[in-house]
Specification:
ATP binding; mitochondrion; about 350 residues; elongated; ATP hydrolysis activity; Probable MSP1-intra-mitochondrial sorting protein
Length: about 350
């Protein structure tokens, strides 16, 4: 009898161990076959690095796997290279943003009011032609406010598995709440939250509905979260989304005074030729966007470099090239072949 009992116990133990081994083997195989496994691992590494800079990694600050994927889109204020001082020609918009957005985000206690009339808007829309500085303005806004900047790409929120996109949208807002004050920036917002139609895919409709529901949930006076959108086509945005973007700023092509300020900032570290005329350059760049002006200046600054590379000196010894590079390249004239107005720019080295 004892032998039978011992044998039964042994069989049960072996069976239990085999089941445990099978479970872990099956789990390992399935995780290896998971197409998103590497993506999640990469997101976790990025999240650890960025949250480590904020001193938030530890047992007291945990993120779920969806929040870790979203955290890959984080841009910390200290990592943003632009501020309001580096943006020219948008003084009116900057002044309004400082008053209506930055102040409530930075000093929430001053805007705590039972009536609910004070506080930062839940949404801000920047719209205008391409290259006018909308994205730069958004980054500078996060820099000046000290807010965590979530540069949200629509591709990050999309997933082929049903229901996963909704979880990622929920993670976007939960992460923003944990890291507030936060700015959720969506460039080309019209491509994500465009006017809904009967032909839209079911998953897309569910994701938009989830986004708007969570957006409406930002009603607490303690929430310092703002959705910031930028677009070239404001008329394509869903009317329900526009209602949630009460602050709207038209970032149009710069006028003459704005172009002069933009060019002054761009050329502040550049040595200009004695024949250079800012007034003439401003006059001949009507219709140029800020991005066009930057490319114009870059092409002009590259002109002497191109001339050097094409000259006989370009075949000098390596030592001679280094000597010339350390001394700086000589002045070069801007011509119509550069698609720029007349003038001369010399890099300061």
């Amino acid at each position: 009898m004892k032998e039978v009992t011992r044998k039964m116990m042994t069989d049960v133990a072996v069976f239990a161990m085999s089941q445990v081994a099978f479970y872990y083997a099956f789990k390992y195989v399935m995780s290896s076959l998971d197409p998103n496994r590497q993506k999640r691992q990469d997101s976790k590494k990025i999240a650890d690095a960025k949250l480590g800079k904020l001193g938030l990694r530890g047992k007291d600050f945990e993120l779920n796997e969806y929040e870790e994927q979203i955290s890959a889109e984080l841009i910390l204020p200290e990592d943003i290279p632009v501020d309001f001082q580096s943006i020219g020609g948008l003084d009116g918009i900057i002044s309004s943003l400082q008053e209506s957005v930055i102040a409530p985000l930075c000093y929430p206690e001053l805007f705590a009011n039972a009536s609910g009339l004070l506080g930062a808007p839940k949404g801000v829309l920047l719209y205008g032609p391409p290259g006018t500085g909308k994205t730069m303005l958004a980054k500078a806004l996060a820099k000046e406010s000290g807010a965590t900047f979530i540069n949200m790409h629509v591709s990050t929120l999309t997933n082929k598995w049903f229901g996963e996109s909704n979880k990622l949208v929920a993670a976007l807002f939960s992460l923003a709440r944990k890291l507030q004050p936060s700015i959720i920036f969506i460039d080309e917002i019209d491509s994500f939250l465009r006017e809904r139609a009967t032909g839209d895919h079911e998953v897309t409709g569910m994701m938009k509905a989830e986004f708007m529901t969570l957006w409406d949930g930002l009603t607490s006076s303690t929430d310092r979260i703002m959705v910031l959108g930028a677009t070239n086509r404001p008329n394509d945005i869903d009317s329900a989304i526009l209602r949630r973007l009460p602050k709207r700023y038209a970032v149009s092509l710069p006028n003459a005074a704005q172009r002069e300020k933009i060019l002054s900032i761009m050329l502040s570290a550049t040595t200009l030729d004695s024949n250079f005329s800012m007034a003439e350059l401003v006059k001949r760049t009507e219709g140029y966007s800020g991005s066009d002006l930057k490319e114009l200046c870059r092409n002009a600054a590259m002109r002497p470099v191109r001339e050097f590379l094409r000259s006989k000196q370009g075949r000098e010894s390596v030592a001679e090239r280094r000597r010339l590079a350390s001394a700086g390249v000589g002045a070069g004239k801007v011509t119509s072949t550069d698609s720029t107005p007349p003038g001369s720019l010399t890099p300061s080295g």
